[in-house]
Design goal:
Length: 323
């Protein structure tokens, strides 16, 4: 049996050490995957070499908190993950025991608010497809980059549909040799990803682009003009031109890791103005939404925006009602 040797105990003051103490399980697993820098298909390979069969989809669900391992084979896999990810023996298993109400058939519980507008099935199917696309690109869990600031602008047309979105992104490398960023677009229902255009702005150019029609997911590789060293910052711009989906009612941004500032602005055509807009946060794709705040359309450009400082893992966004 292959034996993986790691760099030693988890650093006592690290974020990983903290979340291994406090949980929840899915955040600890996600942090451990990021620290190890292994894509999920490689983790699956290491588990298979130990005689444990777990799908990439299951691993993806576990780290997102959509599902929690409970079956005997799954718990055996969690024990093996501790070795693969260089974690203290029993650290992940202990978190599962503390969160004993979890089950593989359901996600986290919370105080009821407004549910996500996309169905649970479409969200988790999209997540599985996304993991597969990222695996094709051999993209590490965090790409070797931390977000310093991300300013995103979304345009909604007169037909109430997403026209496109653009981003100005500032990142800092925590690994030598990083020379790309992988951007993700998830269109609204009815989106034809084959017709979505990737726009590479300043300081980058388009590399590989992958998409899956059944979920409207597009994954685009943006190649930098320089190879970064640890600590280097980089500013680049990019976007997606869509216009292929049905009426839009939200824009959601997911964060797998803690980041810096996130600014989201949504601009509506004057011929199609929503009656109400709200900011929200969400722990995982399958969780209920909370921390709602009403937003007011401003000025002649009919925009709403949010500014989030020091974002943590999870989702944040703006949703709106047409009538």
């Amino acid at each position: 049996m292959e034996r993986i040797t790691g760099p030693g105990p988890v650093a006592a003051g690290s974020e990983l050490a903290r979340v291994l103490r406090t949980g929840p399980f899915h955040l600890a697993l996600r942090a451990a995957l990021a620290g190890r820098g292994l894509p999920l298909h490689r983790v699956q390979h290491h588990l298979a070499s130990r005689g444990i069969k777990v799908g990439v989809t299951s691993l993806s669900y576990w780290q997102q908190g959509v599902r929690r391992p409970r079956r005997a084979e799954s718990l055996r896999a969690v024990g093996a993950l501790e070795e693969v990810l260089w974690l203290p023996a029993g650290s992940l298993v202990r978190l599962l025991a503390q969160e004993g109400e979890g089950a593989e058939g359901g996600g986290p519980r919370g105080v009821a608010d407004r549910p996500a507008t996309r169905s649970y099935r479409s969200l988790v199917t999209g997540a599985a497809v996304l993991e597969g696309l990222l695996a094709e690109m051999e993209n590490p869990a965090d790409g070797g980059l931390h977000t310093v600031a991300h300013h995103e602008s979304v345009r909604i047309g007169a037909d109430r549909c997403l026209v496109g979105r653009s981003s100005q992104h500032v990142v800092r490398a925590h690994r030598d040799g990083v020379d790309r960023y992988v951007a993700i677009h998830h269109g609204d229902a009815g989106c034809d990803p084959g017709q979505v255009t990737v726009v590479a702005g300043e300081n980058c150019r388009t590399g590989r682009v992958r998409w899956r029609r059944e979920t409207g997911v597009v994954v685009a590789e943006l190649l930098f003009d320089a190879r970064l060293r640890v600590g280097d910052t980089y500013v680049f711009g990019y976007g997606f031109e869509d216009g292929t989906g049905g009426p839009s009612s939200e824009h959601v941004r997911g964060f797998s890791f803690a980041g810096g500032q996130y600014v989201l602005q949504v601009r509506f055509d004057e011929q199609a103005l929503p009656v109400r807009c709200r900011r929200f946060v969400q722990a995982t794709a399958g969780a209920v939404r909370g921390a709602r705040r009403d937003l007011t359309l401003s000025g002649p450009h009919h925009c709403v925006h949010i500014v989030e400082q020091g974002v943590g893992p999870g989702l944040v966004g703006i949703d709106w009602d047409w009538e």
